[in-house]
Amino acid sequence: MTAIDWSVLRTAAEAAREVAYAPYSKFPVGAAGWCADGRLVTGCNVENASYGLGLCAECVLVGNVVASGGGTLVAVAVIGPRPGALMPCGRCRQVLLENGGPQLLIDAEPSPIPLGDLLPHSFGAQDLT
Ligand code: THU
Description:
Elements: H1 6-18, E1 30-35, E2 40-44, H2 57-67, E3 73-79, H3 90-100, E4 105-106, E5 113-114, H4 115-118
Parallel strand pairs: 3-4
Antiparallel strand pairs: 1-2, 1-3, 4-5
The protein binds tetrahydrodeoxyuridine.
């Protein structure tokens, strides 16, 4: 895989944010990720009248990665209603870890951060054996 074009990834996250379903929080979020095989996959938050059931954009992204063939995420950008990178919430860090591992780069200022730095000492499949 060639160098990550973060500007393309952010633009894809912004496009995904445009179709977010966030009538309750009014906080639309878009996420875009590159898979190791070159696929660019997106997700947006999907809220629910039963508030606690809402899905974060990153969870929808991971679902779309799996539904479109699986594989490993290598870079993810998340964008909310305000300019700049939005850092994934705690639950999303765990969900992203499953399909990206600790090397997955998360868009951030001033530079991308490996997911392992955002979720150190994490729980994973190795703990189930
Ligand atoms: N949200 C995300 O989609 N991703 C995050 O990492 C943080 C929060 C969504 C959930 C909810 O629909 C809205 O943003 C406000 O919390």
